[in-house]
Structure prediction request, 92 residues.
Amino acid sequence: MMSNEEKYYAVVEKIIHGRHGPFAVARCEELTGGSVTFSLTTDVWKESDWPESGMFVVLTEVRKKRAGWRAKHGRYLKPSDEPNQKARSREQ
Prediction:
């Protein structure tokens, strides 16, 4: 992933086992409508295990489709993603 991509922080609401494979539905306040889905296949979800309801994730390459927002890449939120953590790291 490129570092200058827009990142969206979202909270996983549920996991669905659909006919096209497993995917997650997450809530993102920054996006109109607030809901975004992403596949849990290895080409999209970059972690070794699936997220659970209530977990924070980082989504990139978010696109609007007729059925709603879709993210092409996803991963867990890490402490280094938090702005305050980055500032603290530089001070130390």
